[in-house]
Specification:
Layout: H1 2-15, H2 20-28, H3 38-62, H4 65-68, H5 73-82, H6 99-129
Helix pairs in contact: 2-3, 3-5
Amino acid sequence: AEMAAARLSGTENRLVSLPLSRIRVIMKSSPEVSSINQDALFLTAKATELFVQYLATYSYKHGRGKEKNALTYTDLSHTAEECETFQFLADILPKKILASKYLKMLEKEKRDGEVREGNDEAEEEEDEDE
């Protein structure tokens, strides 16, 4: 049985490019996870690998990478923004913007927030009068 297990783990490692030890560490970082079955670890690693391949292929085909024969960060961020399947990655793959533009956006959000807070207070005062 030990020989079969050793052969299996050797085969698993060739079937997955991602390091299983790193996947295990990430899985164990979740407080709900106490122990990780070897099969679950392998399947999670393989699913992650296939997902990354799919994301890269989709981004390459639908981006400007074909012109340059390269996959770019911009292609990936555009996919996260435009494709419904990948929109959950939008925070992880944000569009690149200049720092000056980002600072202006933050300033605008801060101003808008102050205006909203002022309106909320006015509404609360009206409620108290009733």
